[in-house]
Amino acid sequence: MSQINETAIRTPGVYTTEIPTLPPSVAQVSTAVPAFIGYTQKREDEDGNVIPAGTIKPIKIYSLAEYVQFFGLAENEATITVTVLRSANVAAGPFNITGATAAIAAPSPYNMYYSVRFYFENGGGPCYIVSVGLTANPANLIPGDLQNGLTALEAFDEPTLILFPEGINIPEANYYGLISLAIDQCADLQDRFTLVDVHTQSGTTNATMTNFRNPAVFNKSTNLNYAAAYYPRLRTLFDYRYQDADVTVTVNDTIGNSNPPVVAAGPGGTLNNLLTTEGAIYYASKAAIRKLSPTLPPSPAMAGIYAKVDNSRGVWKAPANVSVNSIYETTDFITDAEQADMNIDATSGKSVNAIRAFNGKGILVWGARTLDGNSSEWKFISVRRLFITVEESAKKATFPFVFEPNDANTWVKVRAMLENYLTLLWRQGALAGAKAEHAFFVKCGLGTTMTSQDILDGKLIVEIGMAAVRPAEFIILRFMHKLQES
Asked: Same domain, yes or no, for 102 and 199?
């Protein structure tokens, strides 16, 4: 029931009205809803309709099963080969299999399915899939398609993270150009954050970092607090998809005990033809292929970890000192000395967060800095993302006050609404301070945040200050001798 203007009543009768007494409130926006931009096996919308070629439509999904339903699976690998070793005392056999190794010459550059699976297995929830084309056509990744996907995403309000899982398979300069555009979109909209994969592994860890920070390679120098970079790539526990007919098997037979041994070619061919004729070779080959697994960039796993930490602790908790699921190894073993160079760089300021293996602890995310690693205000991911969350939540909550009377009544309502929201955040541990007034302030009023001219110009100005909690990046324990006193 709406409120009635009692001074406007002219007809005799009985009138009822409901008077709102509770203050307006701020509903916090979602904090970790990533958008995966890349190629998919098929493209369908929520109603099962095929998305026409040339049309890019971000689709929200809630599970890997929905991804498969709308976008298909991974491409079948076409360059898997297997070498099986057998031995026998005589040429007629019987032969014993002594080993089998598999190799993949050129893994498919399309990794969206594996990346989305990686995301969900690391704690991810709802996300957006921005399919820019089919994996089978074109045959190669096209940077322009990925840029079109980024442009299409701009119109969507809910995504808060941007990543290009297939970016590591396009030329380095093109990938970092895309990243620069994504960072600028984040800064313009002020409601999202970019996850960056270090593109090229150049020999040693230090050489890789030097290449990454080279202005000729990655020359982005503004708005870096809206992104975080991670290194190295991760070897997953996933199985490659393939068809038996696409796998070539070579069999090498060692016959007798002569020195040098007699080696002959055994019954090889494509894997599908061996199932009925050479079962032992077939199953040994399948077992060898299972040891192959996709190596993925870290950004999909990090998107899942962001979501998991946000849900369990809050967006103000640094997404670090957390284990990475569904991997068995990193592609680079990083030492303390190497991470010191990754974490802090006095020249470029571009910090890179390490993913490291620790004895007895597993593989952990061991960094929590934005790319703007030398900024006192924005060096930490959790601080940047907390401000993004509060700014977006406050923006949406104050929208109903547009065109309301710009007077003390409105100022009090807006100030009380924002103070209540920030008080809740302070109680949850997002803001630092023994008292609420130590943790934040909200100012709004004539002579405080506005002049008479501001009011004449239709401006209602609110100033909000927050003492965000910061992660304890360096814990220093000081030990010393104490003299005996008794």
From this structure: no
How many CB atoms are closer than 10 A to CB 44?
Answer: 17
481 in a structural domain:
no
Residue type at 175 in one-letter notation: Y
- Residues of 110-138 as b/e, b for ≥16 C-beta within 10 angstroms? bbbbbbbbbbbbbbbbbbbbbbbbbbeee
Could you tell me if residue 326 is inside a domain? yes
- 422 is a domain residue: yes
Do 283 and 405 have their domain in common? no
Cis peptide upstream of residue 138 (ω within 30 degrees of 0)? yes
Least confident of 13-27, 76-90, 118-132: 13-27
Characterize the bridge pairing of strands 161-163 and 34-40.
Answer: parallel
Number of domains into which the chain is organized = 3
Task: Clarify whether residues 251 and 387 are in a common domain.
Answer: no
pLDDT in tens, 364-375: 999 999 999 999
Question: Rounded to whole angstroms, how far apart are CA atoms 144 and 142?
Answer: 5
Tokens standing for residue 125: 């929830």
User: pLDDT tens digits for 73-101?
Assistant: 999 999 999 999 999 988 877 889 999 99
Percent of the chain at pLDDT exceeding 90: 83
Distance (Å, whole) CA 441 – CA 426? 12
In single-letter form, the type of residue at position 281 comes to: I
Output the pTM of the full model: 0.93
264 and 278 assigned to the same domain: yes
DSSP letters of 155-174?
T-SS--EEE-GGGGGS-HHH
Range of the domain at 451: 383-466
Q: Does residue 378 sit in the same domain as residue 389?
A: no
